[in-house]
Write a structure and sequence with these properties.
Elements: E1 3-7, E2 20-29, E3 32-34, E4 41-47, E5 53-57
Antiparallel strand pairs: 1-2, 2-3, 2-4, 4-5
The chain binds zinc ion (ZN).
Zinc ion binds near residues 13, 15, 18, 47 and 52.
Length: about 60
């Protein structure tokens, strides 16, 4: 699972207005979160301050 921390690339947390966040790429099979398998791929963005997380389908 790839993990990286980005800063100031347009994301602003809707909860605390922080613009630091962590990005994870995940894939989902039958409701379970697995990596490197077939299935829908999602990107998660987690606020580094309050940990609010949003998911985007890739
Ligand atoms: Zn936040």
């Amino acid at each position: 699972m790839k993990k990286e921390i980005s800063k100031s690339e347009g994301y602003v947390c809707p909860k605390c207005s922080c613009n630091n966040y962590e990005v994870d790429s995940i894939k989902v099979i039958n409701g379970n979160i697995l990596s490197f398998k077939k299935g829908p791929s999602f990107k998660s963005m987690t606020c580094s301050k309050c940990k609010y997380t949003e998911f985007y389908k890739e």
